[in-house]
Design brief:
Mean pLDDT: 88
Largest sheet: 3 strands, parallel
Radius of gyration: 18 Å
Distance between the termini: 26 Å
Shape: elongated
Structural class: mainly alpha
Strand order of the largest sheet: 1-2-3
Strand content: 5-15%
Low-confidence stretches: none
Order of helices and strands: HEHEHHEH
Length: 142
């Protein structure tokens, strides 16, 4: 993969060039570790001037996890439903902070981070991803 990324990051043929890399990380486990493949990519894969954007996927699953955690703390169903969103946001914030703190220390850290939810529904919105990608590319690239 390193060879492919390097070749595509530096090719003079615009149609074959990689302009940005969306590195997807599933958030189905809010206590997830950094996986060996993720660690290897950010330690060893020089993408030259191609920005890497970590895309946190499946963040909406955290609402279910948050609800179950709150119920396990003997919270009523009504209260747990009311509190689950804020609890899920806290879980996501904590996980993002942890991942930032680890990946940003590696030799080739991501340029940006973004998360998406509800992408399996018609109301799924990619605006945050497009804005983040535009920011990562910078005005010179556009």
């Amino acid at each position: 993969m390193k060879k492919f990324v390097l070749e595509r990051a530096t090719t003079p043929k615009l149609a074959e060039r990689i302009h940005a890399i969306w590195y997807c990380m599933s958030m189905t486990d809010h206590k997830r570790p950094i996986l060996a493949a993720e660690e290897k990519f950010f330690k060893e894969c020089d993408t030259k001037d191609v920005p890497v954007i970590v895309l946190f996927t499946k963040v909406d699953v955290l609402s279910d996890i948050a609800f179950n955690e709150l119920r396990n703390q003997n919270m009523s169903i009504k209260t747990a439903k009311k509190e689950m969103y804020s609890h899920a946001v806290k879980m996501m914030d904590d996980l993002q902070e942890y991942i930032h703190s680890v990946l940003d220390k590696y030799q080739f850290p991501p340029k940006e981070y973004v998360h998406l939810a509800n992408m399996n529904k018609k109301k799924g919105d990619t605006t945050a991803l497009l804005q983040c990608t535009t920011n990562a590319l910078g005005i010179e690239s556009l």
